[in-house]
Design goal:
Layout: H1 6-14, H2 16-25, H3 28-32, H4 34-39, H5 42-56, E1 67-71, E2 77-82, E3 88-95, H6 109-115, E4 120-121, E5 124-125, E6 131-132, E7 135-136, H7 137-146, E8 150-155, E9 160-167, H8 170-185, H9 191-208, H10 212-225, H11 236-240, H12 244-254, E10 261-266, H13 270-281, E11 306-310, E12 316-326, H14 333-345, H15 351-358, E13 366-370, E14 377-386, H16 390-407, H17 411-423, H18 432-444, H19 451-460, H20 464-474, E15 481-485, H21 498-506
Parallel strand pairs: 2-10, 11-15
Antiparallel strand pairs: 1-2, 3-9, 3-10, 4-7, 5-6, 8-9, 12-14, 12-15, 13-14
Helix pairs in contact: 1-5, 6-12, 7-8, 8-13, 14-17, 14-20, 15-16
């Protein structure tokens, strides 16, 4: 809020009666207040329309989403949903520029590059002769605040990019989208702010090394993925070694039109969407300087069973167990989604919670999830428990997974899980931002355009046999890695002894194939 102009902050206060009316009258108030909405300044209008979106998006949650798709001449893939519910446009532009593209010894380069995009802009001359002036970080923030535009984005393991939410009125929209295009194509990477951001990143890494949950996550990814890029984490040393020249080189190589994916939803026409897509990419280079496609990354190698215990003074131990398992677009996705809801994704109704919490009181909760990625993302189960009961809790989790892999779910569990997932699907797409996130996933991972329209039908068709077969293909206790942070270092819990052999026998049918902050 500190970046907003005083006049805009005051105008929000002046719209409070309007917001109250909308809350009281719901959707019926929208048409009656449209004139008032148009009359207030940009930031207040966006505030009001965001409020209205909560009412308007709730109705057609199950309606089909017509995702339009085309490819520009420069290779950029575009995905667009035309929605005239509210006068707002949400846009994201993403690239194959996530941490999996960090060069050897330079982990953290992708994240630092993305964070620096909005630190300053260099001057430029466009092909049509237009001049664009250099801008500082403060000037960028002020320009976006003046038109009530909201910038987002970031870098994950697979992808990196930036998003923008703007009013669709011509003046505000043009400023916001021009700024988005410039931020992606013309960052100046000012040296003094580069040094500041490096120092902040190093400080954050050092702080994370004191937190048991961060320590456990880093160790899990390292054990599960080894030397594969998915298993490499930024360290103090790798970040401190990054230079400004390397930042610029990474940007020139990865932030190019050939690798761009644009996702849009909002109150514009197809023709307007096509013009916006061209505007967003016209400043980008068509390809990397050497003209070559990005290198193909190595295949994920499944780990052998391993366990690592890391001492920590925290009162509780943090336990993670899992393995690489699921790629985006895998046909087992729906069976694994339904099955994991029963096993560990359904909160208090899941088997892991019942076994660990309800029957034995070993932890407040236990969970599991699949995190599909471009290559096999992880299956992970986890919990926190008192140090002196770490071994018991870990064994309960292993036994529960072994039983699940052997027997699968009951018919009653399957019915309840499908009812919950199908009934809750509307909450996944109940506003434009959530829809944009889904469109971005569909676009980047090239999933079917009817992915959202068919999701509930495919969940409904999952059978007990489907779940058992899918889990057998993707999981095996003999391939799972385990991390325990905080337990006594000399307590090994028979992890590699007789119990391990017993579990392996129990899951003989199992073979190979989350946020998770590292993933999508």
């Amino acid at each position: 809020m500190s970046l907003l102009k005083t006049r805009n902050v005051m105008s929000i206060k002046n719209t409070m009666p309007l917001l109250s009316a909308l809350r009281c009258k719901g959707i019926a108030a929208i048409s009656a207040t449209s004139a008032a909405i148009a009359a207030v300044p940009a930031i207040a209008r966006l505030t009001v329309m965001t409020c209205v979106a909560g009412f308007a998006a709730a109705g057609p949650a199950h309606a089909a989403l017509n995702i339009q798709h085309w490819t520009l001449d420069n290779g950029t893939r575009v995905y667009f949903v035309e929605s005239h519910t509210i006068p707002i446009l949400d846009v994201s532009v993403e690239f194959d520029a996530g941490s999996r593209r960090d060069p050897a010894g330079k982990a953290g380069l992708s994240s630092l590059t993305n964070a620096m995009l909005a630190r300053g802009l260099q001057s430029a001359t466009l092909a049509d002769g237009r001049q664009e002036a250099a801008m500082s970080e403060a000037e960028i923030s002020d320009a976006l605040a003046d038109v009530a535009a909201q910038r987002g984005g970031g870098a994950s393991t697979d992808r990196a990019g930036m998003s923008m939410r703007t009013l669709v009125s011509k003046g505000e929209r043009e400023v916001a989208l021009r700024m988005l295009a410039r931020l992606l194509a013309q960052p100046s990477f000012p040296a003094e702010l580069f040094a500041r951001d490096k120092a902040r990143t190093v400080s954050a890494i050092r702080e994370s090394l004191t937190k048991p949950e961060s320590i456990a996550s880093k160790a899990f990814w390292r054990l599960a993925y080894g030397s594969h890029p998915y298993g490499v984490e930024a360290t103090v040393e790798t970040v401190e070694s990054i230079t400004r020249d390397e930042l610029q080189a990474f940007h020139r190589t990865h932030y190019v039109a050939r690798h761009a994916v644009i996702s849009m939803i909002g109150d514009i026409s197809r023709a307007e969407a096509e013009a916006i897509a061209r505007e967003l990419t016209q400043r980008l280079p068509a390809a990397a300087p050497d003209g070559k496609p990005l290198s193909v990354l190595p295949e994920v190698t499944l780990p052998q069973r391993a366990e690592e215990r890391i001492p920590h003074p925290a009162s509780q131990s943090h336990i993670l167990i899992g393995m690489p398992a699921l790629s985006r677009g895998d046909p087992d996705f729906y069976a694994l989604t339904v099955g994991n809801y029963i096993l560990g994704g359904g909160g208090f109704v899941s088997r892991l919670t019942k076994e660990v919490r309800e029957k034995r009181g070993l932890a407040y909760s236990a969970y599991s999830y699949f995190s599909p990625m471009l290559q096999q993302g992880p299956y992970q189960a986890g919990l926190q428990t008192r140090k002196d009961q770490s071994d018991e809790a870990l064994q309960v989790v292993r036994d529960s997974i072994a039983t699940w892999l052997r027997d699968g779910p009951t018919t009653a569990e399957l019915t309840a899980a499908k009812d919950n997932l199908i009934g809750g699907f509307a909450l996944r797409i109940d506003n434009n931002r959530k829809i944009l996130d889904n469109i971005s996933v569909i676009g980047y991972y090239q999933l079917p355009l009817d992915y959202l329209d068919t999701w509930t039908d495919k969940v409904a068709k999952v059978t007990v046999a489907d779940i058992r077969a899918a889990f057998a293909r993707k999981l095996s206790l003999d391939r799972m890695v385990t991390v325990v942070v905080g337990a006594e270092a000399d307590a090994r819990a028979n992890a590699n002894g007789a119990n391990g052999a017993k579990e392996a026998s129990a899951t003989k049918a199992g073979t190979t194939q989350a946020s998770a902050a590292k993933t999508e």
